[in-house]
Design a protein that fits this description.
The longest helix has 15 residues. 44% of the residues are buried. α6 packs parallel to α7. The chain is built from 13 helices and eight strands. It starts with 8 loop residues before the first strand and ends with a helix. Helices cover 44% and strands 12% of the residues. The chain has one domain: TIM Barrel. An eight-stranded parallel beta sheet has the order 7-6-5-4-3-2-1-8. The protein is an alpha/beta fold. β3, α3 and β4 form a beta-alpha-beta unit. The protein is globular.
Length: 296
């Protein structure tokens, strides 16, 4: 039986740091991995949206995963992003990794070609059949252009048993999130894909968050999520409101530009992204610096 509790609490959607020449900054990456683990995050998600996976070559993705496996060294569970707009390319992608130390994949709904709900179901059917580890679905319509409905998520969760263990829900729709929570099978969990909706989602039954903000504030985000999970919503709400201005500012000019600006302020990495992404404006950088300085 798959232990879905391994993915309760705070997962961090970890960034990929770059140097000024836009090569991967593995030194900063290793330090950041250690930092979030020491500060009580529950698991790491690598090669997600926040990790700028879409800008990495296939060889770079392999290097990032190999490096992460070695650095994590079994201290926390590891989830690897594995999605795309071509179902069979995603399946081929599995051949690039040794899954011995990988606990699950996070697979985003196909983007750009906008499949219907039947297409989404059939896509994940193939992914589940070929994945050597459990699958966490990822619904993020703001980026993919298509929303996977609650009914489709529920059909997948019921039809494929414990090979599909959770959904990272970033639809921003609490009604949809609630419907999945109400009708899901016992083995299947809902994880918030939005920092700003993590506490409200936990209040109706979600089991945690895959967080962008936890790159910069792993201890504080973990404390907030753990408070919510133990039903201490007075404390969770207090911390949620403390982060409120970050929730807006950090995504004002896109992600991961906002979190990389914050990590630059705190000295964790350079403020570098790969095109077509660019750093935040000087105005927003100043706002994020002020928020960070005042928060810490």
């Amino acid at each position: 039986m798959t232990n879905t509790k391994r993915f309760h609490g705070t997962g961090v959607a970890i960034i990929t740091p770059f140097k000024s020449d836009h090569s991967i900054d593995f030194e900063s990456f290793g330090s950041l991995i250690d930092h979030v683990i020491i500060n009580k995050i529950d698991y790491i998600v690598v090669l997600g949206t926040t990790g700028e996976a879409a800008t990495l070559s296939r060889e770079e993705k392999k290097e990032v995963v190999d490096f992460t496996v070695k650095t994590v060294h079994g201290r926390v569970p590891l989830v690897v992003g594995a999605g795309g707009y071509s179902t069979f390319e995603v399946v081929e992608y599995f051949d690039d990794f040794d899954f011995t130390s990988i606990d699950a994949i996070l697979s985003v709904t196909p983007y750009y070609n906008k499949p219907n709900q039947t297409g989404l179901y059939e896509h994940f059917k193939v992914i589940v059949q070929h994945s050597p580890v459990p699958v966490i679905l990822y619904n993020v319509p703001g980026r993919t252009g298509i929303n996977m409905t609650a009914d489709t998520t529920l059909k997948i969760s019921h039809d494929f048993g414990e090979k599909v263990i959770a959904v990272k829900e970033a639809s921003g729709n609490l009604e949809q999130i609630g419907r999945i929570i109400k009708y899901k099978p016992e083995h299947f969990e809902v994880i918030s894909g939005d920092d700003a909706l993590a506490v409200p989602s936990i209040a109706i039954g979600a089991k945690g968050v895959i967080s962008v903000l936890a790159n910069a504030f792993p201890n504080e985000v973990s404390r907030m999520i753990n408070a919510a999970l133990r039903n201490d919503f007075s404390e969770a709400a207090r911390m949620h409101l403390a982060f409120l201005d970050f929730y807006t500012a950090m995504f004002e000019e896109g992600s991961p530009a906002g979190i990389k600006a914050v990590l630059s302020v705190t000295g964790k990495c350079e403020n570098q992204l790969r095109l077509p992404l660019t750093p935040v404006s000087n105005t927003l950088y100043g706002k994020l610096k002020l928020l960070t300085d005042n928060f810490s």
